[in-house]
Amino acid sequence: MDALSHLLDDVHFRGAEYVYLNGLQNWAFDSVKQTIFYIILTGEVGFDISQEQRTLSAGHIIFVPYGAKHRFYDASSSSINEPLELNSEFRGARYDSVTLGQGNSQVLMLAVRCLLDSEMAKPLLSSLPDYILIEDGLNGEGPAWLKIGLDFLALESERIRVGRDTLINRLISMFFIECVRDYVEQLPSQSDTWLHAVRDPYLAPVLSAIHANPAQGWTVADLANLACLSRSSFAERFGNVLGQSPLAYLTEYRLRQAARYLTLGDMSINRVSERVGYNSETAFSQAFKRQYGVSPSQYRKERLVM
Question: Which of 42, 55, 71, 75 has the fewest CB atoms inside 10 Å of its own CB, making it the most exposed?
């Protein structure tokens, strides 16, 4: 598997929920801190995010990968009502639409949100923009995967069938993966992000090896051999693209995995330390506390309560 595939496996999508939004006149809603897709089915809407404003219309699809604060609003009105907080409107798979504003119906949108493992996905999320726009996604000009996925989603949202929640989670996972792949393919050749590293012919096999087997006792020499570079050339290239040394990256990834195992709560701390490549629980605990500010046991206690 390539490095991006390994990391996408680590995202662990779950808890997908969707709601239809019927926009009338003078409406607006805010959303923040959630991975969410919006599909504009009919009409025209205004969209604000990170001091950027856009007008979107039927067929557009917006993906907000890591919950940057944003607002949708009635694009035809100069004054709007108090914005709705969208987060409170998600209640699993809703069959009733949420009506926004007053007057005649002008807009129909589908909003789909989901949970993911933000700690494991950190390298990926930090490489993505605040939003990704897919234009003409519903009008036959978008990618083929999108139409297939939306047809499935529409079918599942119309009726209750066994296994529906699992299927919708996987559909959202597919949307996420394909949005990321489309974005990666459009990256400039010299971008200095994690996603550039997974396209780099020298660094990609190194990242794939680390993510496939983080517990192995990797050395810089081992990783340089995988990259087919000298140690100095490899270390310089890795640092220039990823902004840290190879072993620092390895350590961070090991500890993110450890954090996930601790949250799941089905392994002893000693077993977790062995699973992520530490020879002693003491060394693991010290490294974990440096990265997370608390001991592994305290981290587990806090997450299990949550």
Answer: 55
Could you give the CA distance from residue 42 to residue 244 in angstroms, rounded to a whole number?
46
Both tokens of residue 117? 């493992």
Q: CA-to-CA distance for 165 and 171, rounded, in angstroms?
A: 10
Radius of gyration over every alpha carbon of the chain, rounded to an integer in angstroms: 22
Strands 132-134 and 52-57: unpaired
Mean pLDDT of 67-85: 86
- All structural domains of the chain with their residue ranges: 3-185, 200-305
Of 18-22, 158-162, 188-192, where does mean pLDDT reach its minimum?
A: 158-162
Query: Would you mind telling me the total number of residues written for the chain in this entry?
Result: 306
- Which positions ≥6 away from 62 have C-beta within 8 Å? 37, 38, 40, 47, 56, 131, 132, 133, 134
Asked whether residue 205 carries a pLDDT value surpassing 80, the answer given is yes
User: Which CATH class name applies to 3-185?
Assistant: mainly beta
pTM score, whole prediction: 0.78
Residue 291: both structure tokens together: 């990265």
Mean pLDDT of the chain: 85
Tell me 216's DSSP state.
S
Q: Which of 71, 214, 218, 193 is nearest to 124 (CA)?
A: 193
Residue 32: band (very low, low, confident or very high) from pLDDT cuts 50, 70, 90: confident
Single-letter amino acid code for the residue at 243: G
Domain 200-305 bears CATH identifier 1.10.10.60: yes
> Which tokens hold the place of 188?
């400039």
Tell me how far apart the alpha carbons of residues 209 and 114 are, in angstroms, rounded to a whole number: 29
User: What span, in angstroms and rounded, lies between the C-alpha atoms of 169 and 149?
Assistant: 12
Nearest Cα to Cα of residue 60 among 77, 45, 48: 45
3 state DSSP class of 33? coil
How far apart CA 135 and CA 186 sit, in angstroms, is 14
Distance of CA 164 to the CA centre of its chain: 22
